[in-house]
Amino acid sequence: MASNQTSVFIDGEAGTTGLGIRRRLEEVPEIVLRSLPAAQRKNPSARQDLMAACDLVVLCLPDDAAREAVVLAEALGDDSPKLLDASTAHRVDPEWTYGFPEMEGDQPGKIAAARKVSNPGCYPTGAIGLLRPLVLAGLVPPDYPITINAVSGYSGGGRSAIEVHDRDRGPAFELYALGLEHKHVPEIERFAGLSRRPIFVPSVGHFRQGMLISIPLYLDELPGRPTGTRLKEALHAFYEGSEYVTVAVGNEAGKVEAEALNDTNRLELYVWANEARR
């Protein structure tokens, strides 16, 4: 392996997330992907041996399995690789660095230097991307009663959801997690800078991939009664120079399409406001 290359092991590469990450990393010439034979993928000793031989291990596992994998890696001591966890298990753990580079100016450096990085959740990426700049700018109070509405493609539900929708077509649209205990809420609350737990209402549509997050705000209930333009300016200022996060111009029809950014790294943010309906 060349000195400018990084060896990566995807622990859980046969799952939906693992397969997607593998496809992306195969396009990066500086990365060498290492794998185990199918018969050894659940063998702790084989996994640990490969971890010791790699620079980075990406955990694409259920939460409990991800925690077990971390134990395997940390038992290697000085031979322990860097870890990137795609599960929910460590996102609010203070010993892990949150992997949202755009959340503050020095976050990319923190991520690069960290030994353990938690990958942001899908819904939180959109919710935090919208809320954090507005909270930091003082436009949205941390204790404001936030409601987050979201719809995702069915592949986000993993293999079982994919099989149901691909085989039986599944429901056209459904709400879920209506007990208000969705596992993404703690990371949204923490990294958006909220002091009051938001109400989060997720849903799934009968399309494979894509996502929309919407957060309604009463402008007259915010400090200083800002305009929609002021909110948009705050987002522009926060993400100025960002490669992947942009504040987009809405179309005249007032529509946003859930699948528009599929297979990209991009996040587009919109502000829609009607000054007569504040």
3D shape: globular
What CATH architecture of the largest domain would you give? 2-Layer Sandwich
CATH third-level topology of the largest domain: Dihydrodipicolinate Reductase, domain 2
Terminus-to-terminus distance: 59 Å
Please bin the fraction of helical residues: 25-40%
Q: Uncertain segments of ≥5 residues (pLDDT<50)?
A: none
The structure class reads alpha/beta
List keywords for this structure.
single chain; 278 residues; alpha/beta; Rossmann fold; Dihydrodipicolinate Reductase, domain 2; 2 domains; 4-stranded mixed β-sheet; globular
Structure explained in plain terms:
The chain is α/β, with parallel strands linked by helices and 278 residues long. The protein is 29% helix and 18% strand. The strands form three sheets. The chain has a six-stranded parallel beta sheet with strand order 2-1-3-4-6-5, with helices on both faces. β3 (56-59), α3 (63-74) and β4 form a beta-alpha-beta unit. The N and C termini lie far apart (59 Å).
